[in-house]
Fold this protein.
Amino acid sequence: MPSIEIKPGIYWIGVNDHTTDLFEGLWPITQEGVSYNSYLLLDEKKVIIDLAKSLKVDEYLGRLEELTDIATIDYIVLNHLEPDHTGILKILFRMAEKAIIFCSPQAKEMVSAFYNIHDRIQVVKDGEELSLGEKKIRFYLTPMVHWPETMMTYEVNTQILFSCDAFGGYGALQGAIFDDECSDFEFYKRESLRYYANIVAKFSPMVLRAIDKLSSLEVSIIAPSHGLIWRQRPSLIVDLYRTWANSVQNGGEKRVTVVYGSMYGNTEAMMDALAQGVASSGISVEIFDVRRNHCSYILPALLMSKGVVVGAPTYENALFPYMVNLLDLALRKELKHKKVLYFGSFGWSGGAKREFEKMAHQLDWEIVQSFEFRGAGTEEDFQKIIALGREFGESVKGL
Ligand code: FEO
């Protein structure tokens, strides 16, 4: 993909990744891909803002060389040290032999730790400005969006905010890099939410703090380090991020996510009856089988739903392992403040309910009903779960 001029002298020079299967080694992106957006500013001083993963290195350097002599680059701004944005640093730093790295105080040690680079590093203060000639950039420290060293960079004349992870999302660029040229906005919206739930959710208070901190800044373009560049509606992605951060804080919207697993179909059959009950209350319901859906795709629904139904059988006197994994990730992402209904089948002594209750307590989830049944369940059990589902749907609607 060739470089693209965003504004005179400001270029997208990123890497479009269609080959990584697991982002952070955890989250599937085989189908969706991701982009590592990197930017070049040419003025009296030449600056690169954020780099890319160590992938397609020749392509990245070739694109850069078409625009400038790499040896003449003056500054490299590292908004964030996670290697998806810095993997190319080591080789670039050797080629850009006079370039000075600009980063936050916390990032300095990380540059050494990750890349064994100890010199030509300039630490910046919050609000500090750097003149490039006609252009001028300003740094805003935004810790924990996504790591403690994270900051954003703002070009004053064009009002472009280079926001790094914030306001980014999964989804390789599909020819268009701008929101107004993109033909499938729903794809990027969905993938931005999945990225938020997977990567950023835990840090939602800091996201809200960063949005608040920058609220008085005039921003004409948001140029994140993943996904689309928002030049037509920059406020849209900020509003989405605010909504998602608030959902983490307050439990989400009045809708129900059903997550279930089943060993031989008994809990699954009960889930169908339960879903019938929930749906009859008129509330929106979304269903995920934890055996077949990677947690990456379930977490966004959990994040957005005030109501959660967990259906999982007992496995070796404890909770079905796939469900344990999902709940553990929900805990790590701090997806708290839910109303929840549990049900599941057991063969002899049970145990899933007990483990679920322990995990729900850690999650601050309020259990409004728990229902264990033996084996395949009786006709009465099916009637009971339909009624419980309806009752639960009504109670979430009434929140
Ligand atoms: Fe896109 Fe926190 O790295």
The mean pLDDT is 97. The pocket of MU-OXO-diiron is lined by residues 80, 82, 84-85, 146, 165, 225-226 (CB under 6 Å). The radius of gyration is 24 Å.
